[in-house]
Please model this.
Amino acid sequence: MKAIVYHEYGSPDVLKLEEVDMPTPADDEALIKVHAVSINGSDREGLIGKPLYARLGGLRKPGHPILGSDIAGRVEKAGKNIRQFQSGDDVFGEIPGYHGGFAEYVCVPERTLARKPANMSFESAAAIPQAGVIALQGIREKGQVQPGQNVLINGAGGSAGTFAVQLAKLYGAEVTGVDNTGKLDFLRSLGADHVIDYTREDFTRTGKQYDLILDVIAHRSVFAYRRALKPNGTYFVVGGSVATLFQILLLGPWIRRTTSKNMRILVVPQNKKDLISITELCEAGKITPVIDRRYPLSEVPEALRYVGEGHAKGKVVITVE
Ligand SMILES: NC(=O)c1ccc[n+]([C@@H]2O[C@H](COP(=O)([O-])OP(=O)(O)OC[C@H]3O[C@@H](n4cnc5c(N)ncnc54)[C@H](OP(=O)(O)O)[C@@H]3O)[C@@H](O)[C@H]2O)c1
Model:
């Protein structure tokens, strides 16, 4: 089968279209013929090997040669312990370890797969898993956003941010989206009440405070984020610099004890319940998986370059013929 492979961390130039062996499903896995796979921040991090947590699978070179985590496709073959799906079923989901999706076929365990809604395209389904579940956890499940609250999303124009802005509006919040200059109108079109251009303004220094900050790309000090929180406010970080993550890990408990502010790393386990929940909101038309561009499998390097250069508004999806 064809796949986009890489053997060293680097720019999209290290990615090559190659002929590789077909994977064989374990008993609890389904072999999926991939129809669409979407790009997340985790793919870009896995490509360049930064932040450092992106090298968990391999410190000096990638632990797995194929990136791509969120797939939608058709079950080609089901392992003998698979109960819910059989060959011919259309499914979608997130691959554990975030790898293997930029290929014609991939094996995925049953526990992270869901049935694709019949009236949803493979592209839209592939756009949902990682980004949609992060947003659902950050805004509704753990964030518990209430009507009238002030919510700020840092990195609002990317994969998870696009879902988070829409969800926060759905639950009645006043939403501020932070991203680059070229994405501000896009954020307004998603429903953001206020926008901040991160290239010109530091949201932690405006004097404004928020009930909830969901940060997909943290890189400031824990004290800067604390400054931007209202009393009883919550700061959730899902991704960003290792230095910031460590600070939150070490100082978060102390800040929680000594102030009324809640600062935590939001760990988002891959889970089918949340995936189905956010997909139902999409089916009901309350949330839209926003797809900026589609590229064929052979053009994954161009797609990742487009994302890396700061152009992508929402999701970029690879369609696999
Ligand atoms: N916690 C968990 O359990 C968990 C699970 C899965 C994934 N993750 C992590 O969650 C993160 C999800 O990110 P994503 O997929 O939404 O990423 P993404 O699609 O790359 O979006 C990130 C957005 O942030 C913007 N941005 C860049 N620098 C910024 C800055 N200084 N201030 C504000 N915005 C900035 C980017 O714009 P530009 O185009 O200008 O760069 C982009 O629009 C990843 O780090 C991933 O590893 C965490």
DSSP finds nine helices and 15 strands in the chain. The two ends are 12 Å apart (CA to CA).
